[in-house]
Design goal:
Immunoglobulin-like; 11 strands; four-stranded antiparallel sheet; alpha+beta; about 220 residues; seven-stranded antiparallel sheet
């Protein structure tokens, strides 16, 4: 939902430094704090509800996973992509131990990076800084028939990033639009050809302008 109300609420309950310093690896929670990183501007703090119970059904969704299985892209039929990830802890999890805290100046949470390939070059999407409680993120307004590469990496842990590659196929409505455009173009070409034929027939057969020479000769003798 909207960023402004929850950002004000978070700012009222916690100092700015506390909002910006997320824990390195907290437990997954119902709310995910994130910032969009675009052109050097960290953007405002936003929140969204996580979807831990989401399951990809074969009828409306297909999955692409990273080689290690830590990152999964759920490609939905409406053109959106819900990415989900897990983090392999370096040490056994101890429920009694407090969560690891950040050192001064250290950044916590996760970094989402994105690239897509154009006809001649590769473009980078706007990155996203996700809080430590985030385990999924929804991407909208992606290009169809374009190869994408998404990577997620914890900021403060020495772990390699997990990446997936996929492309979006045109949706059903887009297929209909493409088919209608193709048929419409073919009809226009046929109409142009018919108009040219009618003009040719009218000009050269129905209304001849040049009389035949032998007819003029016979008319003179008569």
């Amino acid at each position: 939902f909207g960023c402004s109300f929850l950002a004000l609420l978070a700012g009222a309950r916690a100092p700015v430094s506390a909002v910006r310093r997320w824990r390195v690896l907290g437990e997954a929670g119902p709310l995910c704090a994130y910032r969009t990183l675009d052109a050097g501007d960290p953007g405002r703090l936003c929140f969204r509800y996580t979807q831990p119970d989401f399951r990809c059904t074969s009828t409306s969704c297909r999955q692409v996973s990273s080689p290690g299985g830590q990152l999964t892209a759920n490609i939905l039929s409406n053109g959106s992509v819900l990415i989900q990830w897990t983090v392999a802890h370096e040490a056994p999890h101890d429920s009694t131990a407090p969560p690891k805290s950040l050192t001064p100046g250290q950044t916590g949470g996760f970094r989402l990076s994105c690239w897509w390939n154009g006809s001649y070059t590769q473009f980078e999407c706007a990155g996203v800084h996700l809080g430590s409680s985030c385990r999924d993120y929804l991407l909208n307004e992606l290009h169809t028939n374009v190869p994408y590469r998404l990577c997620v990496r914890p900021y403060a842990l020495e772990l390699t990033e997990a990446c997936v590659e996929f492309s979006l196929a045109p949706g059903g409505m887009q297929d209909i639009v493409i088919a209608m455009t193709t048929v419409g173009g073919a009809i226009c070409v046929m109409l142009v050809i018919i108009c040219l034929l009618v003009a040719y027939i009218t000009e050269n057969i129905m209304n001849p302008t040049v009389p035949h020479p032998h007819r003029s000769h016979l008319h003179t003798h008569l």
